[in-house]
């Protein structure tokens, strides 16, 4: 039963899309969430994730199988491609984080052509750049408007920090990353954050995530083991320790307390 990740480029350890990313699902399913919308990609489907966005994804086997290909288009590669091919670039209209790509008769054969080159899930140079160039040509021929996405090298502009943080606090990314995505230096981010929330970013994030956890455990009967990753914690032990420190009881004790309260009321 194949359970494989094939990729060209470097996968970010954070829930952050550092480079425009092409994903093709060979077998299985991929579920993605960008802070406001959910997406599901099934076998034979593909899409693009925009760079400088936050995404949480979950992979699921179908009939015991899970195979997918990721291709990352870094800025150095894209600038070299643009200089070589001189594509026509117009402003890309959609602001969606995840772009579902339409059916393209060339893509299935392209994906098959990649597999012989992989060694332990990676393609080594110089084949990696050759295959990336081939893929980008296929995508642009099918959708020329994607040039406005790929060849926009602008950095994030300054945006509403309060709105952004309240929408994205669950994502497991660094403070430096949050600062960059809101169009600020780290010092400006911390200064503006203190003005808006009257708290440091780290303390606010932990408290905000734990308050959401308290709600989910106390009113939705969810388990700590089911939610800690989705709330931006990397380890269940750290989540449980921080939870008890803030609320004076463990997630398990809160759950039992709520169940006892319900039985008593009945």
Protein model, in words:
- The protein is globular, with a radius of gyration of 22 Å.
- It contains 11 helices and 12 strands.
- The chain has 266 residues and is an alpha+beta fold.
- It has 2 domains: 3-150, Sandwich (Jelly Rolls); 161-265, Homeodomain-like (Arc Repressor Mutant, subunit A, Orthogonal Bundle), CATH 1.10.10.60.
- It has helices spanning 75-85, 107-114, 127-142, 147-150, 161-168, 175-181, 186-197, 201-220, 224-227, 236-247, 251-265; strands at 3-8, 16-17, 20-27, 29-33, 38-42, 46-49, 53-54, 56-60, 66-73, 98-100, 118-119, 122-123.
- The strands form 4 sheets. A 5-stranded mixed beta sheet has the order 1-9-3-6-10. Strands 5-4-8 form a 3-stranded antiparallel beta sheet, with no helix packed on it. A two-stranded antiparallel ribbon has the order 2-7.
Topology of helices and strands:
Blueprint: E1 3-8, E2 16-17, E3 20-27, E4 29-33, E5 38-42, E6 46-49, E7 53-54, E8 56-60, E9 66-73, H1 75-85, E10 98-100, H2 107-114, E11 118-119, E12 122-123, H3 127-142, H4 147-150, H5 161-168, H6 175-181, H7 186-197, H8 201-220, H9 224-227, H10 236-247, H11 251-265
Parallel strand pairs: 1-9
Antiparallel strand pairs: 2-7, 3-6, 3-9, 4-5, 4-8, 6-10, 11-12
